Structure formats: C-alpha cells, structure tokens
Fold this sequence. Notes:
4 helices, two-stranded parallel sheet, mainly alpha, rod-shaped
Amino acid sequence: MILKKLVKAAALGAVLVSGSFFANAAEAGTKVGYVNMSQIVQQMPQREAVSEKLRTEFKDRIDELRSLESKIKDKVETINRDGELLGAKGKTKLEREIASLQSDYKLKAQALDEDNRRRQGEERQKLIMQVQQTVEKVANEEGYDMVVDAATLLWAKPEDNLSEKVIKAIK
C-alpha cells in the first residue's frame, strides 16, 4: 500500500516536472519529439532472438522441473491406486518421497523464476539501451533538441512522433 502511494507520488512529480520542462522548452523554441518506447521494444526483431536465447538458456532447468512434476504425479497415482496394498509403512514412505520431491520442486521452481526474471531484466535493459542510442541518432538526424517517451505526454503533434523512424533505424 505504501509502495503504491510512493509510486503514484513519484509519477505525479515526474508529470509536474516534465510539464514545467516542456513549458521551458517551448519558450526557448526547442524542437521536441516523442517516441513510444514500449511500441519500439515490442517491434524490435532482436526481441525474438532474446526470447529464444533465454528459452535455450533455461531449457535444461525447465526439463528438470517437468521431470520432477512427472515423478510426483506418478507417486501420487501409485498411492491412490495401490495405497491399501502398500500398507501403512509403504504408504508413509511414498508420502515422504512425495513431500521431498514437492519441496525440491518448489525450491528449483522459485530459483528458476528468479533467475529468469533477472535475465529478462538484463536483456530488456540491453534492448532499451539500443533503443536509446537509436533515438539519439534519429533525433540528431531530424534536428530535434529533445525526445521524450509518449507515456509522459498529454498531447503532441503526430508529425513529432519519431517511433516509426526509430523502428526502421533499428531494423
């Protein structure tokens, strides 16, 4: 709850600062363009290569989790099917094995999830850096003094949208 309020306050502060920033830029005759960063990142051909790279990187760990799932499922089916034939000791032994496998599964799944999120963030940051460099290049070529993300704008002229030019330059 506190985090949400903090994020809202930061966003409001950014809007207020950017509003005064744009007012100063307009007074100075500064040419301001904008880009839709999320659209650009979504349309980057490199994005699919990064996704494939991450799938390959985590394939073995995902296969290991699937194997654990299968083992757990098989043991649960054995208990359900043959529980009475196993006797109390056999059933208890299987239940412990299942609990151990489930614990192992949870730990490995959590580690995989954390590592996957971290790696996705790293790769996304690389893509964003590439976009920023391309935005700077396109802005200089087009004579813009400043380029902002469309997410911070209330309104702008469509001809100042550099998104398509940046996408073409990246491809």
